[in-house]
Design brief:
By secondary structure, the chain is an alpha+beta fold. The chain is built from 32 helices and 27 strands. Strand 18 and strand 19 (688-690) form a beta hairpin. The longest helix is centred in the middle third of the chain and has 27 residues, at 299-325. The relative contact order is 0.05.
Length: 898
């Protein structure tokens, strides 16, 4: 569009343009026009700076401002007229509304303009979304460049509207020390500046806010004609719609696209706007068309265009509804043509060599989805999961309050279980940060998002990151687990810094019904914090009730089971109790081995396991002597555990290893005792991957092997049980570790070559119907149970796979022979594929030693087995026990013993 084409628009000509002939208001009109042209000239320089800060964004320079006069004509049509004062205010708002889309508009750096609190909050959320964890203070002080740049762009985008409000009064110093204002005319700046700033900012507000801010008209100034009044709401609506409808190829020039080479979503924005022609009006519809068809490679841009224009359609309809409901004159455009379906949109935005089918996932029954996913389908069949999530949310709330209110030391959580007339009620209460109505609706109830990382919570509670708060839960996601316990749920909350009249109650009658939000102003004093009260679907003592994983069916026992470490005291109230039991704050990271054991496997002071305390203390001594730390790269403890399952069996199955997520129970395992820190692998958090790296786990496992050897506990049974795990971790085992059975006894790597060298044939047996046990080591027939004496040349390796999570840290595929990975894609069982599969476990270890002893390759011994269709079998001396499957490995003829 030519630079001054805006002067040919109807809006400009009818308001600010010089009138031919006698104009009784020419002086006032010229003053406004001169002021606008001067503002436009100065702002042009400022707008050019936008591209420096936001190079991936489409054009936001003076050409966009000029084009708004044209789209304002489109929006207003002949139905809506403006007087010169309104046109001046609207035109100035055009200039300023996006003038703060560059760092130059802030007079300082964006982080400084935003303030340290908000900047750190922004960084914190960016870390969480990009890396999956919350940063510490050092990481916030020195963020990676890509995160800082992304946050700078996000900060500008989020704050540019409010900064635009300030630009009217902002001044810059010239080289000679003089102040420069964008609007130099002091009278006009004083008269209209606040309104221009508010209008410029309003294009970023929700539509409903326009009526609250701009409902009343302004009268004219004494030095202007009486009828130059200002309809502020009309101007806000025109600005909003003129801006949102100004989408065409002028905002994405082809050469500029090539020069800037934007990436990601920005690239798709450029590509679709590069196609778009100037918008037109057909009746009350805005019509967009494309200059050329979209090829299959342009399909993402085509769909983005449809989504973008649908958003414009919603904006037009929302403004029209607002004006209609207020009885105000409606604007000329009220919708976008062709966006109701992909097929109709393709008539405006043509496609070539493909057909748009709207196959996006649709959820027609949102309550039904929440009903399905808000309980067992998402969180599993463990009611205690819901209590764990509530405790975690409550603790986060208290820690958030501590971050926002230094000196707050009375944070606590209360858990109560009560019964009345056969109905059971569970209540979890905290005196933490609490929620206002906005957070309650858009944080807690936004199913599928983490409330702590939402913009709503960040804006409502600035300073969380700066105060050192790093949430461990994901309220909003975790909250819906409450429906595992019951359908009737009540949430009462009051922000810590709000009055009792601001407290709110949210009640549910199941996840598929809309909740009811009510004020509590007439209820008297409401404590700060949040209370969640659930009417239980079944008795906690039911087979599938809340206590199903406890022994003594006590609330305090359940809390101890779920909460392995906590920063906030937790008070549990049993039904009818006069006083609570307290779970004091504790850190697994810093506790002694004795303290950690007591927290993981607490003393039994109630019920039927009191008599087991002596045994528990004996096992604690064993644990203290055997456990070693798993530490991260900072030297911080992220586990304290023993390798193996001795404690599990010695303690009658009561001493499982525990995987914690943020200090709470996530998973249990019998391949270790103690705890290992994890991170959730699904919403229920009943499965977790370790936070430790492979190298960190290897260091711990090496320390465990050394500790077992040093204490004399690394005998044959333990060697057999841990051989596979150690081999998986280190791609090899020490030469003295037993890993297989033969007729001559247990086989170790150091002895294997000699054993193999004495034989021309070796039968590598594959287990069932043979089975093995380690205490004492023996091979037996699984069906009959009788001990088995292996024939002279038989060998069977003891490939006992560790339970999760260790099996997931070192998957078998990790140690497979990389030179033969190509064979994974073979469609038949070739010798290469067989070797590739065997090479990662103890069979592969044995075969490597065999090939070295026989001076041959894996092909030499495996290819003949393949020619026999991998169906070798042999009988034991007692043939009644049936055939045993395996591979008959034969020494190549050139190396055969004579």
């Amino acid at each position: 569009m030519p630079e001054h084409d805006y002067t040919s628009t109807s809006l400009w000509r009818s308001t600010l343009a010089a009138r031919p002939g006698d104009d009784p208001h020419s002086e006032q009109r010229e003053r406004l026009r001169t002021s606008y042209l001067e503002l436009r000239r100065k702002a042009r320089v400022l707008l050019q700076e936008n591209a420096r800060s936001m190079p991936d964004f489409t054009v936001h320079d003076i050409t966009h401002v000029d084009a708004l006069w044209e789209t304002a004509d489109l929006v207003c049509g002949e139905e809506v007229m403006l007087n010169p004062a309104e046109a001046y205010v609207l035109g100035c708002s055009f200039v300023l509304h996006d003038a703060a889309m560059g760092e130059a508009a802030y007079g300082t750096s964006v982080p400084e303009a935003l303030g340290e609190e908000r900047w750190r909050d922004l960084l914190s959320v960016a870390y969480y979304r990009r890396k999956g964890y919350w940063p510490d203070q050092d990481q916030l002080a020195s963020p990676p460049t890509e995160i800082a740049d992304a946050c700078r762009a996000a900060a500008i985008r989020e704050s540019h509207a409010e900064q635009a409000r300030r630009l009217v009064d902002q001044s810059w110093r010239s080289s000679t020390g003089n102040e420069i204002h964008l609007i130099e005319d002091v009278l006009l700046r004083e008269a209209y500046g606040p309104l221009i700033g508010n209008l410029a900012a309003s294009h970023w507000w929700p539509v409903d806010r326009l009526a609250d801010e701009f409902r009343r008209e302004w009268g004219s100034w004494p030095w202007q004609p009486r009828d130059w009044t200002i309809d502020r709401l009309k101007l806000a609506c025109i600005l909003r719609l003129a801006d949102v409808t100004q989408i065409d190829s002028r905002r994405a020039p082809t050469l500029l696209f090539a020069l800037r080479d934007p990436q990601g979503v920005s690239r798709e924005h450029w590509r679709f706007q590069e196609h778009v022609s100037r918008p037109d009006r057909n009746g009350d519809r805005v019509t967009y068309t494309s200059h050329r068809p979209f090829l299959p490679t342009d399909a993402p841009s085509w769909w983005l265009a449809l989504d973008y224009l649908r958003d414009i359609d919603l904006e037009l309809k929302a403004v029209d509804a607002l004006l209609h409901d207020l009885g105000r004159d409606r604007l000329a455009v009220r919708a976008v043509a062709g966006v109701d379906s992909p097929e109709r949109f393709a008539e405006h935005f043509r496609v070539q060599d493909w057909r748009p089918i709207d196959a996006t996932i649709k959820v027609s029954d949102v309550p039904g989805l929440v009903r399905s996913l808000g309980g067992e389908q998402l969180y599993g069949d463990e009611p205690e999961v819901a209590l764990r999530e509530l405790i975690q949310n409550a603790q986060d709330a208290v820690l958030a309050r501590r971050a926002l209110q230094p000196g707050f030391a009375d944070g606590h959580i209360e858990i109560r279980l009560s019964e009345s007339d056969g109905s059971w009620c569970l209540e979890v209460r905290d005196n933490g940060v609490g929620m206002d109505e906005e957070t309650l609706i858009h944080g807690l109830l936004d199913f599928g998002t983490s409330g702590w990382s939402s913009a709503t919570v960040r804006n409502q509670l600035p300073g969380l990151a700066g105060g050192g708060f790093t949430p461990s839960g994901r309220f909003g996601i975790g909250f819906f687990s409450v429906f595992l316990l019951g359908d009737h749920v009540e949430v009462i909350t009051r922000r810590y810094d709000a009055a009792s009249r601001d407290a709110r109650r949210l009640t549910f009658d199941g996840p598929s019904h809309r909740p009811l939000l009510t004020p509590l102003s007439a209820q008297g004093w409401i404590p700060e914090g949040t209370t969640v009260r659930i009417t239980l679907r079944r008795s906690p003592n039911d087979v599938k009730g809340l206590f199903q994983r406890t022994v003594d069916e006590r609330l305090s026992e359940l809390a101890q089971r779920l909460v392995l470490e906590n920063a906030v005291p937790i008070h549990t109230w049993e039904p009818g109790a006069a006083a609570p039991e307290t779970l004091s704050p504790f850190s697994l990271t810093t506790g002694t081995a004795e303290e950690v054991f007591d927290r993981l496997y607490p003393p039994q002071i109630h019920g039927r396991r009191i008599a087991e305390e002596k045994q528990r203390l004996h096992l604690r001594e064993d644990f203290v002597g055997q456990a070693t730390e798993l530490v991260d790269h900072h030297g911080r403890r992220i586990g304290l555990a023993t390798l193996g399952n001795d404690l599990y069996y010695a303690g009658r199955g009561n001493y499982r290893g525990i995987v914690t997520v943020n200090g709470l129970l996530s998973d249990e395992s019998i391949c270790f005792a103690g705890y290992l820190a994890g991170q959730p692998s699904r919403a229920s958090r009943d499965q977790a991957a370790l936070v430790a790296t492979q190298d960190e786990v290897r260091d711990w496992m090496h320390s465990q092997e050394q500790r077992l050897r040093g204490t004399g506990r690394f005998g044959d049974p333990v060697q057999l049980e841990q051989a596979y795990t150690l081999y998986g971790a280190f791609n090899g085992i020490a030469g003295d570790i037993a890993f297989a059975f033969t007729a001559q006894g247990l086989l170790r790597p150091a002895d294997t070559a000699d054993w193999v060298a004495q034989r021309n044939e070796v039968f590598l047996a594959f287990g069932l119907p043979l089975a093995m046990q380690t205490r004492p080591p023996r091979v037996f027939h699984y069906v009959s149970g009788q001990n088995v004496q292996l024939p002279d040349n038989w060998v069977i390796t003891f490939n006992r796979v560790a339970d999760a999570p260790l099996s997931e840290v070192f998957p078998p595929v990790m140690n497979r022979d990389a030179d033969y990975e190509f064979a994974r894609h073979h469609t038949t069982p070739t010798w290469q594929k067989t070797w590739w599969r065997m090479s990662g476990d103890l069979d592969g270890l044995f075969l490597r030693i065999l090939c070295e002893a026989w001076s041959c390759t894996p092909e030499a011994v495996l290819a003949p087995v393949g020619r026999r269709h991998w169906s070798d079998s042999r009988h034991l001396d007692d043939e009644s026990l049936g055939a045993v499957q395996g591979y008959l490995l034969q020494r190549p003829a050139r190396t055969t013993l004579t």
